[in-house]
Automatic annotation (TrEMBL):
PANTHER family: ABC TRANSPORTER PERMEASE PROTEIN YPHD-RELATED-RELATED, AUTOINDUCER 2 IMPORT SYSTEM PERMEASE PROTEIN LSRD. Keywords: Cell inner membrane, Cell membrane, Membrane, Transmembrane, Transmembrane helix, Transport. Residues 1-24 are annotated as: Disordered. This is ABC transporter permease. The chain crosses the membrane at residues 30-48, 83-101, 108-131, 137-160, 172-192, 216-242, 254-286, 298-316. Residues 1-21 have a biased composition (Pro residues).
Length: 345
């Protein structure tokens, strides 16, 4: 006599975890930042033993100006809207500052106007990216050309002199602390779940052409904020040099290198706390050491940034692997249409 088949017991998988923008991989970023800290200390000891690293204001001005620019670019990377125009916007802001200051205007007012000009340009670029879903790198390349054109028209090949900062090392250290506060403070703010949830929607998990209203917020914050910080960097550069000219765009490779080497994801949405600040310091110290060795110009000014960018890309990919799948809030469903696909894991 055959036995009746055993009843089939349905096995239920646990319900899927709702999508979120949680801080995956923070421990991996902190581990990398510890390695960077060791590198900074070792480089400082090595360079200081063979030169005058901590004498004079030049290294601190360099950390402050490159750091503000790098912090701006890092912000745009975190929001997945990389702003390739930050270097050109910094030069434009410096020209605006010099133009107003040269005519007898207040230095504070001139600096404020210059930063506002940079902010407005960044917000325009952010609006284009957010409303069209166009890649930020393409839009900001256009913004770079616009900024360079305006700067060229203002300077007309000339250099605009301005009163140079007379505060010396003290003012340089002050601006360095401003950069550290903004960079590290921004990294801490990024740990807040609500901040990440709002600003990481441009790291696309579905069709990149699809219009998403939430992307506009991230694009405005990323491109507007990065442009404002670039503008502040440009103002600090001009106050240190005592003149505005067309040179200064060479800081862009160092800003990109510091953000990537510091652990900010090239894919957007992720980043550590103090990585950008540590990477900026490491690159500036290493560059200062190369200057002291009287190495060729191409080695001093371009090779460190190039190598750091390539290493930073590898670091970014390794941190992504250690952090696990990225999750983000999916775009809202459209009435009458199939719901959008869930997050890719």
């Amino acid at each position: 006599m055959s036995q009746p088949p055993s009843p089939v017991v349905a096995s239920f998988a646990p319900p899927p975890r709702p999508p979120s923008a949680r801080p995956e991989g923070v421990s991996a970023h902190l581990g990398w930042e510890a390695i960077l800290l060791v590198g900074v200390l070792a480089t400082a000891v090595l360079v200081a033993s063979n030169g005058t690293l901590f004498q004079g204001s030049m290294p601190w001005w360099r950390i402050a100006t490159v750091g503000l620019l790098a912090t701006g670019f890092a912000l745009s990377l975190r929001t997945a809207t990389p702003n390739l125009a930050v270097g050109a916007i910094a030069v434009l802001a410096g020209a605006v500052y010099a133009e107003i200051a040269q005519d007898g205007g207040s230095g504070v007012l001139a600096g404020a106007v210059a930063v506002v000009v940079a902010l407005v340009l960044g917000l325009v670029l952010g609006a284009i990216v957010g409303l069209t879903s166009a890649p930020a790198w393409a839009v900001t390349l256009g913004g770079m050309a616009v900024a360079q054109s305006i700067t060229l028209g203002m300077l007309d090949g000339l250099s605009i002199p301005v009163p140079r900062s007379t505060a010396g090392t003290g003012m340089a250290v002050l601006w360095t602390f401003v950069f550290l506060a903004v960079s590290i403070g921004g990294g801490v703010l990024w740990l807040v779940p609500g901040v990440r949830k709002v600003l990481t929607t441009n790291r696309t998990l579905d069709d990149p052409v699809r219009y998403r209203q939430t992307n506009l917020i991230g694009a405005l914050a990323g491109l507007g904020g990065s442009s404002a910080l670039a503008g502040l960097s440009g103002v600090v550069v001009v106050t240190y040099l005592g003149a505005a000219n067309l040179n200064g765009g060479e800081n862009l490779p160092y800003a990109v290198a510091a953000a990537l080497l510091g652990g900010v994801s090239a894919f957007g949405g992720r980043g550590g706390i103090a990585g950008t600040a540590l990477a900026v310091t490491l690159l500036v110290f290493a560059n200062y050491g190369l200057v002291q060795t009287e190495a060729p110009g191409w080695v001093v000014y371009y090779l460190p940034a190039a190598l750091a960018i390539l290493i930073g890309v590898v670091v970014s990919r390794m941190l992504e692997a250690r952090s696990g799948p990225f999750t983000a809030t999916p775009p809202p469903a459209v009435p009458g249409l199939a719901p959008p696909p869930g997050p890719v894991r």
